[in-house]
Amino acid sequence: MTFSRIESGIPGLDKLLGGGFIEDSVILVTGETGTGKTIFCSQFLWHGLKKGETCIFITLEEDPEEIKEDIKVFNWNFDKYEKKGLFRIIYHDPAQVNNLGSLIIDEIKNLKAKRLVIDSTSLIGLSIQDISQIRKLLFNTINVIKKNKCTALITAEIPEGAKGLSKFGVEEFIVDGVLVLNYLEYAAGGLDRSLIIRKLRRTDHGKDIYPIDITSKGIVVKPVE
């Protein structure tokens, strides 16, 4: 059975994903601090904008203007798409995550968005302490995204030295795919960063440790030598 795919925008990655992310799926991009999660997600949105797709970036942590300034180093000018009404970057208070689902519905419908990023789900614990409630909120949020026909990347942070794939240990079980970004711990191909495709439903994906490089044009996945 074949599935419609959406290009990741990360050179070298799509061939490891069977052609890209399955449309209307939700993928977790996880890793420790400084592994490139926000760059990865911004590149995913930038690629969509260049293809004429509308995109939304919801940040639960950083100021939107700081994010846009940080990624200008790659010559990604999100402002011009924002002015055209093709892109929205929104700060959402992590203390108010109970209304995250309704925000997503409104923004996707208003913009007719095809791509969405939520960065970072690790902030949800600021207002919800119970793991079962966190799982329920994340599960409902993911369902909202899928029902509204949007392909999304959500990020999570792995605490330094932890062996899990996310802060709460639940995110990886309720998403369609998990990409793990590493810095130094799984260095490969002479580079200090790497990517592992830990999970990707309905896909015969690459199963190696792939070196990645952060270049002047963004993240590039290198072949395994």
Offer a few descriptive terms.
single chain, alpha/beta, 11 strands, 29% strand, 9-stranded mixed beta sheet, 27% helix, Rossmann fold, 225 residues, two-stranded antiparallel ribbon
Summed up, what is this model?
The protein has 225 residues and is α/β, with parallel strands linked by helices. It contains six helices and eleven strands. The protein has one domain: P-loop containing nucleotide triphosphate hydrolases (Rossmann fold, 3-Layer(aba) Sandwich), CATH 3.40.50.
Q: What would you call the structural class?
A: alpha/beta
- Let me know the average pLDDT: 93
What helical percentage do the residues reach? 25-40%
- Beta fraction: 25-35%
Q: Give the strand line-up of the largest sheet.
A: 5-4-6-7-3-8-9-10-11
- Count of discrete structural domains: 1
The tally of helices reads 6
Element pattern in H and E = EEEHEHHEHEHEHEEEE
CATH architecture: 3-Layer(aba) Sandwich
Shape: globular
- Biggest sheet character: 9 strands, mixed
Strand runs, count: 11
For the termini, the CA-CA separation is: 31 Å
Q: At the first level of CATH, what is the class?
A: Alpha Beta
Describe the protein.
The protein is of the alpha/beta class and 225 residues long. 27% of the residues lie in helices and 29% in strands. The chain has one domain: Rossmann fold (3-Layer(aba) Sandwich), CATH 3.40.50. It has a 9-stranded mixed β-sheet, sandwiched between helices. It has a two-stranded antiparallel ribbon with strand order 1-2. A hairpin with an 8-residue loop joins β9 and β10. The model has no long low-confidence stretch (mean pLDDT 93).
